[in-house]
Amino acid sequence: MTTTNDIEEMIARMAIGDRAAFEGLYAATSAKLFGVCLRVLGNRAEAEDALQEAFVKIWRNADRYRVNGLSPMTWLITVTRNHSVDRVRARKSKMGAGLDEAAEVADSTPGPEALAFAASDRGRIVDCMGQLDPDKAGAVRRAYLEGETYQELADHYDVPINTVRTWLRRSLLKLRECLSHDG
Amino acid sequence: MTDEIEKEDEYALTAEYVLGLLTPAETEAYEDVLSVDPELREEYAFWTERIAALTDDIAPVTPPPHILVQIKETLFHERSAKGDMATNGKSWLQRLGLLPAMAGGLVAALAVLWLFTAVLPPADVPGAAPIYVAQIASADESLVVQASFDAAAGNLQVTRAAGEAREGRVLELWLIAGENPPVSLGVLPETQSGEIPVSPEIALALSGSTLAISDEPPGGSQTGAPTGDVLAVGQVIDA
Predict the structure, then answer these.
(1) Helix pair angle (B24-34, B38-52), 10° resolution
(2) Can you tell me the distance from the alpha carbon of B96 to that of B87, in angstroms, rounded to the nearest whole number?
(3) Chain A residues touching residue B224 (CB < 8 angstroms)
(4) CB burial class (10 A; 0-12, 13-18, 19+) of residue B113?
(5) Which of A170, B52, B63, B239 could cross-link A74 (Cys pair, CB 3.0–4.6 Å)?
(6) What is the CATH number of the domain that holds A112?
(7) Which residues of B touch A119 (CB under 8 A)?
(8) Which chain A residue is nearest to residue B218, measuring alpha carbons?
């Protein structure tokens, strides 16, 4: 079983060019990160490309990972998610406005398995999301997991962009209030 | 009261940043503050940790084996056992068109020999003279960095002759080869001089390229492209 410390150690060794550490990290985390690419991109070929590019970034930025004070798995997920979102947005802008297939690919509602992770070390996001109005929680998921912009959220919920921003910001503050009680 | 509103704004902005909801201009402004404000970095870490937990219910899916092969080809120029040369996995020798020529005789063999002595770090030739040098300077010469490629060590030696990073910021070095987008060579050391390791692929791209230095948040650009001002540029010339 690979622990957080193991992953941290592998990233530290990658920063000094240790290729074996890279292979170890890949073995331990690629399935999770590929799952993230698939979720965001909803397309296997694109997810494969995104995963490759994400790992290239991870290798090249291994020496910088500590800067933002993130735990190693969060850092890996953030790099992978952000890269996948960049790809989604590049694809959408290439396809032009209106052709928004990506939104239909993934189901935004948390499945029952989500609840099983509620006790995860990284907090009680699922619990706290459950306390939000379903539309608001859905918007947070759409933004994070599908890379939707305020404009897309406004289109989806059929409200003006300023309105969506106002209600989402309010919900995010509520979410923070709940999250900060997780000790 | 005002403080409270400011705090709330900071919380909401950070969440929007983590969710990728800010406009490019807002993102840039946010990152400017993030790079100098430790409290904001704490807030950023708070949100990022928790929002990333939204991926907890995403099931792991084992990627197909060719993915790792291709990553290793990209990063380490390792060829797969099957000699799979598909897609962007071409070796750098191939890209130079030298592989077919190798069958062609002495000239090609010499070319390859030259390439190896020029580009690959021969472990037992210490202190070989640099092949490429560059002076990367701002227009007013308030920032001047000298770079020379040490083929023996596979390093770019960099010396900051003038100027330094702004407080809470770093200087990041970029390679611009032809029409290609800038490739990060890494953050310049805080010390006045130091080394930046260079892969064989980058070494091959050095000749005739341009080096540039940009102003970036600590740890360097997170986007893979320069995010701050480009402060200095310089041509790579053969030494």
Answers:
(1) 120
(2) 16
(3) 57
(4) exposed
(5) B52
(6) 1.10.10.10
(7) none
(8) A67
